[in-house]
Amino acid sequence: MASADSLTVPDAPVLADVPLPAPAAGPATGLSAATRERLAACARDADASGEPDRPALALLRESGLLGLALPYEYGGTGADAHGLNSAVAQVAQVNASASIMLFQHYAVSRRILEHGSPALRRRLLPQLARGDWLAASAWSETGAGANKKHLSTVARRTSDGGWVLNGAKSFTTSAGLADIYLVLAQTEEPAADSAPDTGYGSAGQTFFLIPADTPGLEPDTSLRLTGMRGSATGFVSVHDCHVPDTARLGPIGTAASIIAGVRDSGATLGAVSVGLAQAALDLAHRHAERRGLLAQQAVRHRLVDIAGEVEAARAIVERAGRRTADDPGIATLHSKLIASSAAERVINAVERLLGSAGYVASNEINRYGRDARAVALMGPTNDLCKELVSLPWNR
Length: 395
Known about the structure:
Strand content: 5-15%
């Protein structure tokens, strides 16, 4: 791993001067049957132990999926948002915790691509594309609310032009596993005439990219969740954590505008919900076939209703990823709302269809339900999604 000082690099060379090898042939977003089986086994083990799913992360690194969000010139495969959503859904179908780690890695990778300096992109993106480094977001914190306002994590200028950060983050996915964290901090007090409220984040906030081995940055994975138990979701604290100014992502005080632009990307947590809903539907079909229930019209019709819910969720996630709506950002928010709600309904319907079999603790439908509930609570939470959609109506 690199230290924060290694982010201080000269301007990047012209990319054409440094040719990179072509990406490996094969489907950019596909999972082999063997990888699916191994990820599924990892999910079962991590759910039972509650420990970070390191074996699943190793599989993601081997698979090449970590490079999908980045263009070829940085060693990635250049998938669009539709391709990213497809990959996340496929992973979620067998291992939802791994899919959340993958989604966060994509999100940070794209923010660096969009807002990083040429030197920062050249330094970090090839490592993220190869899977040498895993990226994570450290935005949430106790007391700041789902909308990330009133942050207690602060960054102050140092005499050498760098920054020192102090504070603590909560519910950080991949805590202790990530090689670099995108940390949100307050760098200045919002001015009275600051930009209008975007509903997420506030004026005077800035993003910093901090390698995991930077002195003063400490992860804590003691948090035990009901769902997504392998996702290494925990706390990350920064105490007198010194970073150079080259670790800053974007202009000072503009993190809120970067956050506001994330929803326009079309990448959506709804893809995780689609994968979970599909897994539940597949489980229902296997149960019905094994028990000889498909001869019953009532069972067949219930399966049709459940499949319709899955297809509707998939359709809105695909629409978000293709960015064909008049307002792609609103479509992305709706996709998270609708797909996450649909997944919970689907899983509840499958639980009823399974009957007493679903009441056995080891039945996977129980893990699907706990994992699906977690998506609604992830940022932006479903309640915040509704606020972000409706906020412009008051202006």
